[in-house]
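Translate structure to sequence.
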């Protein structure tokens, strides 16, 4: 079945998944997938809810994905017709390397999301999670000729780990995957020119924290540049030192400190994401 057929079937089937109140009824997959997959689903759903909480979502139009362990290289992607505040562990769609749902689902997926995320997942064994945003600050910095500037500690922690990819239009052309992968190289993040931000991580927590730092740095840069032209640049060598410290500290902070706390926050906001 081709992508158009999948989308048509999904649009027909989704009506059966709606209640009279206009909410989406999503059958739980807990116990129907492996414990390892379920844990990844819960973490990824938490990330979606946190992105919505921080105001980084763009209606339904950005994507976060996570690879399911195994030789098939299946990965989870958000349903195209759900707001991020509606995403649950069970609603995430498992797709193959061609973007087709692995299991029957009433939902459809985003072709652009598949192009960008499949490119990174298929090329990088360490890219277990990929997150992509269209925030105003991220788009603004991606459109700046010099990209992210070393104006703040947050920027200095992640700046040296950022790659760039030139804009090629809405990412629905699978030929673009090779260029995305080539431009990303071994970096942990990317500014998609005139488009937005992207982060890669070994797990959801690492990827989310990296994306958080990138986004905060972009926000601070736009605020600093809008305040005037008398900027204080860091002393020589400070940016390089901060970059080396960030390379070591961010991963540890994500796994041991920040992500466990963020996940507790997601449960406080609405524990329904874990269903």
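Result:
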């Amino acid at each position: 079945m081709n992508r158009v057929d999948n989308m048509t079937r999904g649009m027909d089937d989704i009506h059966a998944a709606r209640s009279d109140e206009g909410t989406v009824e999503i059958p739980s997959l807990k116990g129907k997938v492996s414990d390892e997959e379920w844990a990844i689903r819960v973490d990824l759903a938490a990330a979606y809810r946190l992105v919505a909480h921080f105001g980084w979502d763009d209606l339904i139009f950005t994507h976060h994905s996570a690879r399911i362990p195994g030789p098939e290289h299946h990965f989870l992607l958000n349903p195209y017709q759900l707001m991020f505040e509606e995403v649950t562990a069970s609603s995430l769609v498992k797709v193959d390397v061609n973007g087709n749902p692995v299991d029957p689902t009433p939902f459809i997926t985003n072709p652009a999301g598949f192009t960008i995320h499949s490119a990174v997942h298929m090329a990088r064994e360490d890219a277990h999670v990929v997150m992509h945003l269209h925030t105003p600050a991220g788009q603004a910095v991606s459109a700046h000729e010099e990209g992210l500037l070393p104006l703040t500690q947050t920027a200095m922690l992640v700046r040296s780990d950022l790659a760039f990819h030139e804009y090629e239009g809405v990412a629905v052309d699978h030929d673009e995957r090779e260029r995305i992968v080539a431009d990303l190289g071994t970096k942990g993040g990317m500014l998609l020119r005139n488009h937005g931000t992207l982060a890669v991580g070994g797990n959801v927590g690492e990827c989310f924290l990296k994306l958080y730092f990138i986004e905060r740095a972009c926000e601070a840069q736009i605020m600093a540049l809008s305040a005037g032209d008398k900027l204080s640049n860091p002393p020589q060598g400070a940016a390089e030192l901060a970059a080396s410290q960030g390379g070591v500290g961010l991963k540890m902070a994500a796994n041991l400190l920040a992500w466990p706390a963020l996940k507790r926050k997601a449960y406080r906001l609405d524990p329904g994401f874990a269903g």
